[in-house]
User: Fold this.
Amino acid sequence: MELYEILRRPLITEKNTLLGEQNKYMFEVAIAATKPEIQEAVETIFKVDVTAVNTSKVHGKTKRVGRSIGHPQLEEGSRYAQARTTYRGVRRGVIASSRSQGTLG
Assistant:
């Protein structure tokens, strides 16, 4: 898997912005990506030293069609994985400045 396929986009919310003050940033990542792949992608793209990677899967919304209720099997947009990465000694705003320069997708 290519490095730019692993990281899809940064997750920018109020809670994640507060985590940025602790050198922790959230990304939407490919479901099949492993922690070492995520760490390598972040270190290569943003040129930072990653100390920890925590991942979780976000399941898609339940869809209803007539009497059938369930999760669509083929719909990739409604389910994704997210990763919280922790950096050592990062200046505040490194991720935001890289995003504005078009470094990430």
Summary: Helices lie at 3-6, 14-20, 35-46, 94-100. Residues 30 and 65 are 27 Å apart (CA to CA). Residues 35-46 form the longest helix (12 residues).
